[in-house]
Task: inverse folding
């Protein structure tokens, strides 16, 4: 059966089309309205926000790191300056896949996988967005050319000229001036993020670290206009940085070199002070190292060689070396005995070659096993008589002895501006009870009286204790900075002077120390032969390994590094001291035979003119110019 033919309803189709047209028109109008509303919201209501955002995409604020202050010795010789260097920097936000870019850099410059690891580590330490991070320093001309040719493959990478720290004197001042290095993550947390923006290096040791705020300066800024690829088109505004302050040290490079020469390549330390001011004239720790290796990053191999060396070149013996002071503290012990009233200058003690405590049979040996007979204070210092100082320490007792030694700076930090200084150790009854949980024994007081036992001191502390004897108790804390931008450093925490009941006690001990050098039986009289000035000194020997009771020291049976340390302290001219010197020679064995000649050479270098005569300011003959002037 055939289906009926359906007749098309044109009216219905027309109504449907009209409805669709009306709906589409409303939809279009609605969408246009939404678009207009959105445009109004963005362009009118949020105009300030988006205009600022757009401006920030075009204008950037870049930090300008300040120029670091220079460091000079007391005569104006540069010991730390800044020299231009080309480095390769990378901006992570502009490099896209920065890991791949690092691979390209390694390939272009033909570097090692170890370098790639270092680059990635440095990139991950980047701090501020869009801040270039230096990844490779001291580029040579060939490397710069390779980067330029492959620049299209290295987005966000550029060669930058900058100033880096340089130490023209090399190892001479490594332990005093210190060195700079890259800022690590731990330091980054404590630094001012604003003032150190754009700065990638900081003082790590020595003067560089202690005076970091003064040397660094204040950061500057510049507003720059950039294109879409981040390249600077022009500078809109600039605020110049404030450069760091220059520092003049009290160190003298000629005296420093003379002290190094006097040590003769042996392991040891030399420190020379001006007792009137506390200025450090020379500070030598041998062996030393080249601080320039650390500025832009030392290699793993080079650092391992320094770190693992048996001679410890990185170890600052002047500030951190702890040694039993031996007989070098006997002048301070003598002052304590005189001021406490337990002895007088004329008090005598009989020395048969040993000392015995009452009711004890143990013999505390004198270094001179045959004994010196009856000795008074003057003779005891001249001969470094152990028996006399055993007796003196016993009469003082540990409490008074520890208190007096503390006044001389033992057991505490004595410097004004030396960050790494160790406080050493001045034992006491309370210290032993707290650390060893034991009572203090009388025999321990005796050996403390000759600078042995638990006592430990740095060469700087020994120099300062000697300076107090030379300066009659007036405290001038040792310091390396002579002036900072023309201003002298201020001691905000002065240590009280040592005031004795009888000020003439200083002169009595001074005379005994002169007898060490110039007396007929002085222990270091050979070191003073031919001297044009009077020297006051005291030798000392610090045991490295203990010797059994009754045995004698036999150097042939002791390994070289287990032999006694040689120490000597002294000042000159004795009647008006201008220089104090403390010397420690590791495993040198004889203070008077090894360390005393070093002291003498350092004093000669400071007190004598080029013609070998005593300088006029130290009591020598006037120069020809001065003679002519007086005759006129």
Result:
């Amino acid at each position: 059966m055939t289906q009926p033919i359906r007749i098309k309803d044109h009216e219905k189709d027309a109504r449907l089309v009209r409805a669709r047209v009306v709906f589409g028109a409303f939809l279009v109008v609605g969408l246009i309205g939404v678009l207009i509303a959105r445009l109004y919201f963005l362009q009118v209501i949020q105009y300030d926000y988006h205009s600022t955002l757009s401006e920030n995409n075009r204008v950037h604020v870049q930090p300008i790191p300040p120029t670091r202050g220079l460091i000079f010795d007391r005569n104006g010789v540069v010991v730390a300056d800044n020299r231009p260097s080309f480095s390769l920097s990378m901006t992570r936000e502009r490099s896209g896949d920065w890991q791949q870019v690092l691979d390209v850099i390694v390939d272009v410059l033909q570097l090692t996988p170890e370098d790639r690891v270092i680059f990635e580590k440095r990139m991950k330490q980047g701090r501020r967005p869009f801040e270039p991070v230096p990844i490779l320093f001291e580029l040579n001309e060939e490397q710069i050319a390779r980067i330029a040719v492959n620049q299209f493959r290295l987005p966000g990478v550029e060669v930058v000229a900058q100033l880096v720290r340089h130490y023209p004197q090399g190892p001479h001042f490594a332990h005093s001036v210190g060195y700079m290095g890259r800022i690590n993550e731990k330091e980054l947390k404590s630094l001012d993020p604003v003032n150190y923006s754009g700065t990638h290096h900081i003082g790590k040791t020595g003067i560089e670290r202690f005076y970091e705020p003064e040397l660094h300066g204040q950061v500057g800024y510049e507003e720059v206009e950039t294109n879409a690829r981040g390249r600077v088109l022009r500078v809109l505004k600039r605020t110049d940085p404030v450069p760091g302050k220059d520092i003049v040290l009290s160190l003298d490079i000629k005296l420093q070199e003379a002290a190094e020469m006097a040590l003769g390549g042996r392991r040891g330390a030399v420190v020379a002070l001006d007792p009137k001011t506390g200025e450090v004239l020379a500070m030598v720790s041998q062996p030393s190292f080249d601080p320039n290796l650390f500025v832009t990053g030392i290699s793993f191999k080079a650092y391992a060689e320094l770190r693992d060396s048996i001679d410890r070149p990185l170890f600052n013996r002047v500030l951190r070396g702890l040694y039993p002071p031996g007989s070098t503290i006997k002048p301070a012990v003598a002052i304590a005995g005189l001021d406490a009233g337990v002895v007088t200058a004329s008090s005598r003690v009989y020395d048969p070659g040993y000392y015995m405590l009452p009711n004890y049979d143990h013999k505390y040996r004198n270094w001179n096993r045959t004994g010196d007979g009856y000795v008074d204070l003057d003779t005891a210092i001249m001969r470094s008589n152990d028996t006399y100082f055993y007796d003196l320490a016993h009469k003082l007792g540990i409490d008074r002895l520890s208190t007096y030694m503390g006044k001389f700076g033992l057991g505490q930090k004595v410097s004004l501006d030396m960050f790494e200084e160790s406080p050493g150790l001045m034992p006491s009854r309370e210290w032993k009870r707290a650390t060893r949980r034991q009572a203090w024994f009388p025999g321990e007081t005796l050996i403390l009286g000759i600078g042995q036992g638990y006592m430990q001191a740095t060469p700087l502390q020994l120099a300062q204790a000697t300076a107090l004897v030379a300066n009659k108790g007036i405290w001038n804390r040792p310091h390396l900075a002579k002036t900072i931008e023309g201003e002298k450093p201020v001691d905000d925490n002065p240590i009280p002077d040592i005031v004795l009941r009888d000020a003439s006690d200083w002169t009595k001990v001074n005379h005994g120390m002169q007898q060490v050098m110039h007396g007929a039986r002085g222990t270091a009289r050979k070191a003073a032969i031919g001297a044009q000035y009077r020297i006051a000194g005291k030798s000392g020997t610090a045991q490295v390994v203990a010797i059994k009771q009754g045995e004698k020291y036999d150097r042939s049976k002791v390994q070289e590094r287990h032999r006694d340390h040689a120490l000597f302290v002294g000042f000159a001219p004795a009647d008006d001291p201008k220089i104090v010197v403390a010397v420690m020679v590791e495993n040198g064995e004889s203070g008077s035979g090894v360390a005393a000649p070093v002291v003498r050479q350092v004093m000669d270098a400071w007190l004598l003119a080029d013609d070998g005569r005593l300088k006029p300011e130290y009591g020598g003959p006037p120069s020809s110019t001065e003679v002519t002037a007086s005759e006129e």
